[in-house]
Each structure stands twice: as structure tokens, then as C-alpha cells.
Amino acid sequence: MHKPIPSSLEEHIGFWLRFISNQVSGRFEQQLALHNISVTEWVAMRTLFNANAATHSSLIDALGMTKGAASKIISKLEAKGLAKREQAQDSLREQVLCLTETGKALVPILATTADENDEYFFGHLSASRREDLKKLMQELVTLHQLKEIPTK
């Protein structure tokens, strides 16, 4: 009885997704490092940018992180002068998180960096092919109910 020949790595879509993802993420990580920002810090900053103030629980939900991990990220951003914790207006016990003016000013710069990274890897694709690729990825996220935001 002959054993089937195992499929090669290159035959797997997952291989190609990981191959591209590692390259896209790695280059973006290098670009963020020029600003002394990690990918996780970027995701937190971008999340906070949309909300004037966010509770710990809303940031935890948005990032898909544990309370401790989210707290560490906020502490790092605070130490860099990019985020701050303030007392919630309607609660004496709850804090809200927000970006400082410096943090708010940095987000558009970092967003441009993200756009440039996308352009570097996907700029050769037509707008419709880029949109199709994005929709396929979103379809997989929805189908498999993926929730955790990629921060690594």
C-alpha cells in the first residue's frame, strides 16, 4: 500500500497568508519603531483616537486583550506622553482613557505609515482587486467569528 505524498507547503493557502502577513507586519513594525511605537500601541492609539474617552473595559473589548495586557499598553503610552487616564465624569470609581494632544497628533502620521505600507505591498493591484482581497479576508473573519485584533 502506497502512502500518499504529503502536500507541499506552497500548496496551502495558509502558507501564503502567513508568508505575506509576516512580511507586511514586519515592515510595518519596523516603520512604527522609527516612532518608538509597537504594533499593539498603534492599535490601542488608533482605537482611542476614535473615542474621545474610553473605559478600560471598552478598550479591552476593542483590542481583545486581557485587563492586565491592556493596562500595560496604556501605562507604556502614558510613559511616552501619548495617553492618559482621567476620572470619568459620571463615576467616582471609573477611569477613562484618552490620548494626549501629542498622541492625537501622532495618530494621523502613523495612519499614513500604515497606508504607505499597504501601498508598498498591494499598490500594484487595481483598486477593485484590493477591495476583493479585503472582502475575502473579512469574509473569513466573519465566517470563523474571529474576534482577536492582530497586534503581533
TrEMBL record:
This is MarR family winged helix-turn-helix transcriptional regulator. The lineage of its organism: Bacteria, Pseudomonadati, Pseudomonadota, Betaproteobacteria, Nitrosomonadales. Keywords: DNA-binding, Transcription, Transcription regulation. PANTHER family: TRANSCRIPTIONAL REGULATOR, MARR (PTHR42756), TRANSCRIPTIONAL REPRESSOR OF EMRAB OPERON (PTHR42756:SF1). The keyword Transcription regulation applies. It comes from Methylophilus luteus. Coiled coil: none annotated. Residues 10-142 form the HTH marR-type domain. Pfam families: MarR (PF01047). The keyword Kinase does not apply.
